[in-house]
Specification:
about 100 residues; alpha/beta; Arc Repressor Mutant, subunit A; three-stranded mixed β-sheet; 5 strands
Length: about 100
């Protein structure tokens, strides 16, 4: 397997773990969302960019962006539906120094 290409993100998320209030974190299963998955969701859902434009911002191909955002949506859905904590961590990312 070849190494992953570096993905560029705007910034790291302020809060790194989200959990349901119904249970303590020690009793919850955890879903890990990588920083590039977090950025893909931010660009696609919050900024409402087309996949091609979002891929350019992350300096990756459109098919790679599509795979990243699909994986992110699956993980977020798993966390919400199955009452799991969602932790944001890791990934091969660099923070972009330019604004927009």
């Amino acid at each position: 397997m070849r190494p992953k290409k570096t993905r560029w993100i705007k910034c790291t998320p302020g809060e790194r773990c989200f959990k349901p209030l119904c249970k303590p974190l020690s009793k919850l299963d955890v879903v890990s969302l990588t920083l590039d998955e977090f950025e893909a969701v931010r660009l696609a859902c919050l900024e409402e960019l087309k996949q091609a434009d979002a891929a350019k911002k992350m300096k990756i191909s459109r098919p790679t962006f599509s795979r990243i955002v699909k994986n992110a949506h699956m993980k977020i859905a798993d966390g919400l539906v199955n009452i799991k904590a969602i932790r944001i961590e890791g990934g091969c990312c660099k923070i972009s120094g330019r604004s927009k």
